[in-house]
Amino acid sequence: MSSAPTGSQTRTDSHASRVMWISTTAFTLMFAVWLMFGILGKPIQEEFGLTDTQLSWIAAVAVLNGSIWRLPAGMITDRIGGRKMMTAILAVSAVPAFLVSQAQSYGMLLVLAFLVGFAGNSFSVGIAWNAAWTPRERQGFALGLFGAGNVGASVTKFIGPPIIAATAGSTVILGLQGGWRLIPVVYAVLLLVMAAITWFGTPSQDQMPGSSRTIGQMMTPLRQVRVWRFSLYYVAVFGAYVALAAWMPIYYINNFGVSLTTAGLLTAVFIFPASLLRPVGGWFTDRWGARKAMYGTFVVMLITSGILMMPNGHIVIDHADGRATEHLGYAMHIVPFTILLFLLGCAMGVGKAAVFKHIPEYFPDNVGPVGGLVGMLGGLGGFFLPPLFAYTEEWSGFPTSTFFVLFLLTAVCLLWMHLTVVRMLHEQSPQLSDKLEPSDGQQHLDRTFSGTPDQTDSRLQEAQR
């Protein structure tokens, strides 16, 4: 019979729940701010007369600044607490967000977009903050729910166009200009309101697992190859998500001839599952383990990207008599394309949760720095992949080469993970390495390797006894 929870435990659970929900709301807002130039870009381009290349750099510098500080942000969170860090990022990001509405030149827009991008570093803050408060058996769900704030990528796509259309060419309250310039003002106000909610709504006595650790001690785990392997996984499931979220509207317009509004809505079919399924992925990893979730993620990503990368066309056979005949014509239509893109988003949503389930299991005392590095490299993937998509399309002549890049990246991740698992099984239990069917021993082995390295060693000793 289980004992009733103590008052202290109930209070701790309540605090953890408040941290989870408030941090998730804050992250959703800041993710929307981080990627708001995806929708504001078109009216900005028209007003300033920018080329497509100039416009692309506005969004790119925001993504860059939202990634490069994730490692120090996670480390500082472990040292001083998530409440202070999350509140600070919300308040600081409100300043450049408001100033975007006052920009009068392309150069100023670039500087302000870079500064606004700082909001993206809230991810590693929230991961470290939630991991510090949440018991290990519920961390998968908590971190998955927090990560679902990625859905903020769609917020501006829905609220931006109506506000821009309704206020274009007019002056609203306090002399502020309408149209696209009103969006960053709205976000600046919401950031300040959210900063107040975060400061007054979360526990004042925060968890600070790294408060007694030196910078050198916190950086030590980053020397492990495992951390860099997790980072590559996150480039595939998060960096590619950010890149595709920005790339797909253009892809739909260029390849299927749809309007910008339709392209945005169809892209949301990919964005929503890739974001909202993170809690489901977290629950799955809590119940069955992160390794199984990662295998499923990469297999689905390989299948969907493998189909999507097939170019439209046909085989032409030149006959001896000079005739040319066409055979095996193939074309991907918009409906099956969108269905496959939806499934790809589902896999990414589960995979993002699975990657971050690994971190508190292997590095329970260093979630901030490890999660910060993984998040930083994943975010940088979102910065580098769109140019790579463009260059491969230019080189190959095939728009579907976008998914060939993703297919290769996923294949490398799956191969590295599988070789690591096989090597680990062979070294620790060579008598089971040649078994193809699951057995009682294999099931026990899965349980043996489901925890941290210390727990694994303990379970192996029990198995040997």
UniProtKB/TrEMBL annotation:
GO molecular function: nitrate transmembrane transporter activity
Record domain Major facilitator superfamily (MFS) profile: where: 18-429
Region (Disordered): 432-465
Subcellular location as annotated: Cell membrane
Key words, A-Z: Membrane, Nitrate assimilation, Transmembrane, Transmembrane helix
Transmembrane segments: 21-40, 55-73, 85-103, 109-129, 141-160, 180-201, 232-252, 258-281, 293-310, 330-355, 367-391, 403-425
Mode of membrane association: Multi-pass membrane protein
Record keyword Transmembrane present: yes
Keyword Membrane: yes
InterPro entries: MFS, MFS_dom, MFS_trans_sf, NO3_transporter
Composition bias, Basic and acidic residues: 434-447, 456-465
Major place of residence: membrane
Domain of life of the organism encoding this protein: Bacteria
Swiss-Prot/TrEMBL GO biological process terms: nitrate assimilation
Annotated Gene Ontology cellular component terms: plasma membrane
Cited Gene3D superfamilies: MFS general substrate transporter like domains
Matching Pfam families: MFS_1
The family this protein is said to belong to: Belongs to the major facilitator superfamily. Nitrate/nitrite porter (TC 2.A.1.8) family.
Record protein name field: NarK/NasA family nitrate transporter
